[in-house]
Amino acid sequence: MKKILFTLLAVATFGAASAQSWGYAREGHWAADVAADADGNVFATGYSWNDPDFLTYNDNYVIKLDADGNELWVNDGLDIPFDYFTSTNVFPDGAGGCTVVGYSNFATAAAYGLDADGNLTWDSEAWTSTSNNNLLYQGASAKLSDGRIVIGGFNEDYFYRFSVVGTDGSLLSEFEIEADTTGWAFSYFSYRETGLCATADGGFAFSAGGEGFFNLMKFDSDLNLDWSADYDHDPDTWEYGNYNNCLSQTSDGGYLLAASGSGGAFGTYMGSVRKMDAAGNLEWTTYLNHGADWEEGSHAMQVGDYYYAWTQDAGDNSSHAWVLDAGGAEIDSVFIPVINCTWGFGETGMEIWAIRPAADGGYYISGRQYVEDCDQRFTVIKSEADGSFGPCIFNCVWPGDANNDGFADADDLFEIGINYGAEGFTRDDDAIDWSAKLARAWMEEDTLYWYVLNDLKYTDCDGNGIINDDDTTAVISNFGLDHPLNTTRTSAEGVPLYFDPSVTTLEVGMNHIPILLGDAIDPVDAIYGIAFTVTTSSSSVDGASLKIRFGDSWMAGADEQLSLSVNSAEEKKAASAMVRTARTNTEGQGEIATLDVVVIDNLAGKLETEDITLHIVDAKAIMLDRSEIPVDAQSASFTADISEPSSLNDLEAGGISIYPNPVAAGQQPVVNGSGIEQIEILDLTGKQVASIRQEPWPVLPAGTYTIRVTNQSGVYTGQLVVL
């Protein structure tokens, strides 16, 4: 069934929605670290790949984003050695660039300097080959308050070895601390570095582990060891440092140490958090699990007066932060919504590899997510200032933006028509208000139209898993709104789109002007949908009367199309679109629509005629495969003639009657006829008094009115007398 939609757009708002939180993702294994400079620039580093099976790896990514998460540049050419457990750290240099430190098993850490444009300014090749920092596992690093970078890790000779690098990449010094290898067993997890962080006094702290304990060492600004402390694991729990960014300092000068464990009270994988005071004394230990079988702790950081501990878990396709009070008790949680694939490691959802503070009190997260295609994504996320996240960060749809171009406009009708009848996943939040909704990607299975289909979660505007007429409601409801994804429309000369040249005079009252597409010289060879706007600046035109109506035409029969017309009375314009639903292109030329326009008798004291110019603008036509057809949108001038009113079509020709007629004031007349879609009531000037779809009618003052009725066959007019 044809669905015709009209609306009065009282206020059109064109302003991109904004929020403090945002998400960034690109192909790659993971974002191992993230940091921001004082200007709000965000730097992240991690790894990409050459093939989806992860058998061949490229160099790392170093990425610079602006404060809103927009990509400024990507450097993917640094030669940091790679194997499965390689990681990196990134440190802004205060001048728009950054320093990157990379690690690999059984190798020496490497360092690189990049300028504000991402160009390499120095590297550590001159001293890397002679350094005694040959890491057995990975390594960790921190930038001290004076700009020096300390790189440390468990060495192949079972010492913790540290290299100190200057701001120009030069090797300043190296030193070592003997590791406690009592009960040594070759265990990657037990002895690996858990974290290295700068401290407020200009020094740093370093944490690693051993058989049954974690170790924390504090060094002063001269890099001398202040103290060292060990913290036993729970007797029934095997714990390990899961990543190299798991140590942070708290506002009271103490420390948070996050890790992973297995067994214990939960009998499965869990996260752990330890809080130490400034002297290294243990204040509390908390073991945490949200109920998932595989839930590893990774990072903890102070946010305001609370401590946030993040995990990766497979329980709900995402990741949680436990919100802990000053004593380590869980008082709340934060959830990052991610829709992922449903097999293998993909069930982990979002993995957190680093959490770093933001200037507004929130934080940045780097890591990886497994989306619907089960490939990993290099991911960076920014929280709100209060540490929370919105209901959607990735895989977001905005109801009404069916083509995902950032706008709800007439173009969106095309996607609904192109994919008409497709069925797939429903959306948990099926409301159509203009806000981001989390949605799973879907396409039709075994469809003949796979080559033109994109991700249909956008086109399913009402989220019910079916693309049909109902999805146009969201387009209408949000028409004219936009969100942060923006695109620029282009235009070109091509097939003419024009008003019927035989119509040269407009009369006071209602006028119907045919709109044509194509002519004998430039016919349309193939088309699936069209969108355009009609506008005027004439004071003699009632802006509220402008409507564009699509009926039976060479483009599509009334039951083979979706159409809309959106009126903005104040701006005196009407935006429209029509798209076929048959999933085949058509060809032809001639009339495709009719413009309704009411001319107002405001010519008192003037001549009996006045020129009115109507413009067709923002025209776009497409074929089924979304290829655009160049359209030459034209304007036309008409003479407004007030010498006699416009003629009226006969209701009887449409099989429509009104009874009683005349009707007493306050009495409800009845309109009889089949397939009635809309009834409009106009005064003698042609100005709309009311528009109704069914009874009851409004109370009409005494007078003579034009009644305009739209049914499945067309549009018909007649008169109603109110006594």
Features:
Methylamine Dehydrogenase, Chain H, mainly beta, Immunoglobulin-like, single chain, 723 residues, 54 strands, 5-stranded antiparallel beta sheet, 8-stranded mixed beta sheet, 4 domains
Question: Would you kindly provide a written description of the structure presented here, covering whatever features stand out?
Answer:
The protein contains 4 helices and 54 strands. The chain is mainly beta. It has 4 domains: 22-389, YVTN repeat-like/Quinoprotein amine dehydrogenase (Methylamine Dehydrogenase, Chain H, 7 Propeller); 395-468, no CATH class; 495-641, Sandwich (Immunoglobulin-like); 651-722, Immunoglobulin-like. The strands form 14 sheets. Strands 1, 36, 39, 41, 42, 45, 46 and 48 form an 8-stranded mixed sheet that branches. Strands 21, 22, 23, 24 and 25 form a 5-stranded antiparallel sheet that branches. A 5-stranded mixed sheet has the order 40-44-37-35-47, with no helix packed on it. It is elongated and about 105 Å long.
